[in-house]
Each structure stands twice: as structure tokens, then as C-alpha cells.
């Protein structure tokens, strides 16, 4: 490609929560059109198969024992590749605007005159509980839900957890496993020891693990079932209102059949 034909462009794209079928058509079209894809650890790498063989793929996520790009390095890489190659797709887990720093990357690129686009994704905050049959709202049980980060920029538990614990809303906590004991204490202090809690690790994938208990028992459940990150914590009466879904295992089995590489792949 001649340098003078390059139109620098960034599309921040939501890859969904793990099940490779939980991606939008618009996201697939963006991946197909990409000259370069910068992708995170939480995306299902099967999705990269939609890209042209010529597309450069750069892993910029964090994995145990591997070098992790800092956010400013990712920003600079986006700008440099957009200028040298054209269309950069920034592929992120779930929805890029839900604790995904998608907006920061778009704002940074815009300063350099790069065309910017956004393709929303299916957030794990909604899809992961849904695959376990947990409705975040249900008539008679929950009129609203909060989606909160367990770990803020300063590595503290978000103060919003305390506010949410005072409400009757369903509370969905991302990045909260390292703060589970603190979370449990916040709800116990509100006298909610018997409130149901579900924890779903690697939701919507073949590695999905699930544990259910109450504010009082959930730490023991986590130990017993060896639950860890990445996981979603769902707190509220709706956990007891789960729908029985026959399709969860069937769907996951059919994914494995359609995508045999998922058998050895990991999220
Ligand atoms: C940095 S946040 C990104 C969230 C993402 N933007 C979204 O909308 O799903 C990462 C956290 O999302 C949650 N998460 C993402 N995918 C998940 C999955 N498949 N199963 C369980 N939790 C998941 C975990 O709490 C994880 O630590």
C-alpha cells in the first residue's frame, strides 16, 4: 500500500464475553476490514480467524508471566499503526466502554486526526449471569441493577459498593475477586447475611465455573470450588430466581464442535 493512500482509522470493537457467537455482525465486518488488530487477553482468539491472513495481530493484554503493555504504549501503538497501516481494530473483551478504557483510546487517537469509530459489544456484566439463567431484573425481585468495579484505579474497593449495598438493586461486580472479603463485609454490615450470591468464572466458555451461596457462605464456596478471576459476582434475590436453561451445556458443546480449537484454547 502506498503511503499516500493510507487513511488512518481506529475502530474500537467489542468482542463479547467469550462465546465466539456472542459478537455482532458489525464487529465481524470491522475485524475483516482491519489492517492491524490489537487484542486483549479476555477476547476469544478464534475471532481473529475472521481477519485477513495479511492482517497484523498484536497481543497487548496481560497474561501471567508475560510482558504487559502499559496504556500509554498501547495508545502510541494505535496511532503509529494507524498512520503506517490504515485501519487499526482495537479488539476488547465484552463491551469496550464498560471498564474497558475504550473511550480513552478513542480520545487519544482523535488528537492525532485519526478517524475514530466504536462498535459496542455484549458485556460480560450482562451475558455471563444470563448464561447461568440469572435475570438481572425480574418482576417482584429486582427493579434495577448496578454494575460496579471491585477494584478502582487506586486499587481500593469502589465506594459505590457501599451505596449499592443499601439499595434493593441487583449488584454485579467485575474485577472483585481480590476484594471478596471486603465486599461480603459491606453487605454483612447492612444486615444482609442471607442475601444470595453467585460467582461465575470464565462465563460463556467451556471453562465456565459456577458457585452459589449467600453473603455469609460465599467465601467458603469460593474456596471449595476454587473459583478465581476472571469472574463476575452477582448479589441479589435474582440469584435464587434462576431460570433452568437446558441450552447452556448444549450450546457450549456445540461451540466446541464448531470450533475444535476451543478445546485446547483458553480465555
Ligand atoms: C477489565 S474488565 C472488562 C469488562 C469488559 N469490558 C466487559 O464489558 O465485559 C474485566 C473483568 O470483566 C469480567 N469478565 C470479563 N469476561 C468475563 C467472563 N467471560 N467471565 C467472567 N467474568 C468476566 C471479570 O470480572 C474481569 O475481571
In short:
With 267 residues, the chain is α/β, with parallel strands linked by helices. It has helices at residues 25-33, 71-85, 102-110, 124-131, 160-165, 180-189, 218-225, 247-258, and strands at residues 9-14, 36-39, 56-59, 87-92, 115-119, 145-149, 170-174, 196-201, 209-214, 231-235.
Description:
The structure is a single chain. The protein is an alpha/beta fold. The chain has helices spanning 25-33, 71-85, 102-110, 124-131, 160-165, 180-189, 218-225, 247-258, and strands at residues 9-14, 36-39, 56-59, 87-92, 115-119, 145-149, 170-174, 196-201, 209-214, 231-235. A 5-stranded parallel beta sheet has the order 3-2-4-1-5, with helices on both faces. It has a 5-stranded mixed beta sheet with strand order 6-7-10-8-9, sandwiched between helices. S-adenosylmethionine binds at residues 17-18, 42, 93-95, 98-100, 123-125, 128, 174-175, 200-204, 229-232. The site of S-adenosylmethionine has 24 residues, from helix 4, strand 8 and strand 10.
| Strand order in the largest sheet | 3-2-4-1-5
pLDDT averaged over residues = 91
Percentage of residues in DSSP E strands: 15-25%
H-E order: EHEEHEHEHEHEHEEHEH
Low-confidence stretches: 256-267
Please tally the helical runs, counting DSSP H or I stretches of 4 or more residues: 8
In helices, the fraction of residues equals 25-40%
Bound molecules: S-adenosylmethionine
> Which class do the helix and strand fractions yield?
alpha/beta
Report the end-to-end length measured between terminal Cα atoms. 34 Å
Amino acid at each position: 500500500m502506498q503511503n499516500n493512500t493510507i487513511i488512518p482509522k481506529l475502530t474500537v470493537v467489542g468482542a463479547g464475553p467469550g462465546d465466539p457467537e456472542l459478537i455482532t455482525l458489525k464487529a465481524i465486518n470491522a475485524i475483516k476490514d482491519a489492517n492491524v488488530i490489537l487484542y486483549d487477553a479476555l477476547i476469544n482468539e478464534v475471532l481473529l480467524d475472521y481477519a485477513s491472513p495479511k492482517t497484523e495481530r498484536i497481543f497487548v493484554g496481560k497474561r501471567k508471566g508475560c510482558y504487559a503493555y502499559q496504556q500509554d504504549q498501547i495508545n502510541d501503538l494505535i496511532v503509529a499503526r494507524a498512520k503506517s497501516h490504515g485501519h487499526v481494530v482495537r479488539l476488547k473483551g465484552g463491551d469496550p466502554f464498560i471498564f474497558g478504557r475504550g473511550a480513552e483510546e478513542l480520545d487519544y487517537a482523535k488528537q492525532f486526526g485519526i478517524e475514530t469509530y466504536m462498535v459496542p459489544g455484549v458485556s460480560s456484566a450482562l451475558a455471563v449471569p444470563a448464561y447461568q439463567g440469572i435475570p438481572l431484573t425480574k418482576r417482584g425481585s429486582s427493579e434495577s441493577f448496578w454494575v460496579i468495579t471491585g477494584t478502582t484505579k487506586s486499587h481500593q474497593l469502589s465506594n459505590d459498593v457501599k451505596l449499592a449495598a443499601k439499595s434493593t438493586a441487583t449488584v454485579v461486580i467485575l474485577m472483585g475477586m481480590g476484594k471478596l472479603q471486603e465486599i461480603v463485609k459491606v453487605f454483612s454490615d447492612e444486615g444482609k447475611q442471607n442475601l444470595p450470591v453467585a460467582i461465575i468464572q470464565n462465563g460463556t466458555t467451556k471453562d465456565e465455573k459456577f458457585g452459589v451461596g449467600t453473603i455469609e457462605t460465599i467465601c467458603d464456596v469460593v474456596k471449595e470450588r476454587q473459583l478465581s478471576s476472571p469472574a463476575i459476582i452477582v448479589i441479589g434475590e435474582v440469584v435464587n430466581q434462576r431460570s433452568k436453561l437446558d441450552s447452556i451445556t448444549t450450546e457450549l458443546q456445540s461451540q466446541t464442535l464448531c470450533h475444535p480449537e476451543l478445546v485446547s484454547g483458553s480465555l
